[in-house]
Amino acid sequence: MAGPLPFCVYILFSQSDHLLYTGFTSNLEVRLKSHNAGENISTRYRRPLQLIFCEYYLFEEDARRRESYFKTTMGKKALKLMLTGTIEKMGYKHPKTAYLM
Hints:
Layout: E1 7-14, E2 20-25, H1 28-36, E3 49-57, H2 60-70, H3 73-82, H4 84-90
Antiparallel strand pairs: 1-2, 1-3
């Protein structure tokens, strides 16, 4: 049996502003530590961050395509449907003008 799939699309929940962040990585554990250590400009002031969703892919282009999709209006709607219970329980705040994803 083959090892784990190497590419991941993930969704983080910001416990400070209660918004979502979408990302891509080939090493989820390292990437999460990097986000929570403040090493990423886009999430530095949104810490702490909690992983609430991830999908793994065999090929990088598939993962990047999925990440791009989740950043579209349709993708955000799909995520909200898929994660309805989670985002309600976590206190997700819908941004008035645009998503900060």
